């Protein structure tokens, strides 16, 4: 049964250069009912899609991302599936006007499943061809791999480095919604180590250095505020604990004082007196202090 989303229709336009016109795509998207249009200028093969990344971060549940054709959105089947999966995680939908892909209909979902099967077959065929090529090269006495890389040619090494940076950026953008809000709430008042420990408590496998590197990449790409990289101020131990308690509360205001105490113990934080067991009264004292100086708006009971 076809279901009609009640959210917004958001059109996405991509053209390869600044000189290319977007009017034709915009007219088609407006005619389809799109009230918002997001434009992107960049090569179809490029993974750098800041406008798309921002749209995926901010799209709301039941909204539908609409494109004129699939090639306006994705550079490959795997990229398309990754975008649709991210939309699904936010309970949003996807529709291509000129292709049979519409995740709000059974027919569209079937077409998507077919694409997924094709992508899996494509990966298997590529892997098999690669292995066959290596075996053939070895039988002729040739060494596998790119000669330019083996010979450390600067141009080839530069291409490899650029590809690695592009792949890294893609990985970072895919998981932004899972960890960046916490970083924004806690930086620069808290150290990278404190934030990494907080994220690990929630199931994310971050180290302080990898987290700092990811945020540095976002700042370089103008996708995050440079203020996140400011040095954390030195604080007395009790002030640091107060800020940490305030950060935990701000991240989830529904937590009770006892639940915050449990989180502190799981983070292996010592009490102000150096103990390992947190009493709710100790947490309440720190939270009340944070409230008095404006670190949090309200207390919890």
From TrEMBL:
Domain Resolvase/invertase-type recombinase catalytic: 8-141
Positions of the catalytic residues: 16 (o-(5'-phospho-dna)-serine intermediate)
Cross-referenced Pfam families: Resolvase
Keywords of this entry: DNA integration, DNA recombination, DNA-binding
SUPFAM superfamilies per the UniProt record, alphabetical: Resolvase-like
Signal peptide location: none
Name of the featured protein: Recombinase family protein
Native source organism of the sequence: Shinella lacus
Origin organism lineage: Bacteria, Pseudomonadati, Pseudomonadota, Alphaproteobacteria, Hyphomicrobiales
């Amino acid at each position: 049964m076809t279901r009609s989303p009640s959210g917004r229709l958001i059109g996405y336009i991509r053209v390869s250069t600044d000189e290319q016109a977007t009017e034709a795509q915009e007219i088609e998207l407006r005619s389809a009912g799109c009230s918002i249009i997001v434009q992107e200028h960049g090569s179809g093969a490029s993974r750098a899609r800041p406008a798309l990344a921002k749209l995926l971060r901010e799209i709301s549940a039941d909204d539908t991302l609409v494109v004129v054709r699939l090639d306006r959105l994705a550079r490959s089947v795997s990229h398309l599936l990754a975008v649709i999966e991210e939309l699904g995680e936010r309970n949003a939908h996807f529709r291509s006007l000129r292709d049979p892909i519409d995740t709000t209909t059974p027919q569209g979902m079937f077409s998507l499943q077919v694409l997924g099967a094709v992508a899996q077959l494509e990966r298997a065929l590529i892997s098999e061809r690669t292995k066959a090529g290596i075996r053939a090269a070895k039988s002729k006495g040739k060494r596998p791999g790119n000669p330019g890389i083996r010979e450390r040619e600067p141009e080839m090494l530069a291409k490899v480095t650029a590809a690695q940076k592009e792949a890294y950026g893609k990985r970072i953008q895919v998981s932004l919604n899972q960890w960046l809000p916490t970083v924004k709430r806690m930086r620069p008042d808290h150290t990278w180590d404190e934030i990494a420990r907080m994220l690990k408590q929630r199931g994310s496998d971050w180290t302080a250095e990898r987290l700092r590197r990811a945020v540095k990449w976002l700042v370089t790409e103008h996708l995050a505020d440079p203020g996140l990289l400011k040095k954390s101020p030195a604080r007395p131990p009790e002030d640091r604990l107060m800020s940490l308690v305030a950060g935990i509360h701000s991240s989830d205001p529904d937590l009770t004082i006892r639940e915050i105490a449990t989180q502190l113990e799981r983070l292996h934080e010592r009490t102000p007196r150096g103990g390992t067991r947190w009493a709710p009264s100790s947490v309440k004292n720190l939270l009340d202090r944070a409230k008095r100086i404006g670190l949090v708006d309200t207390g919890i009971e």
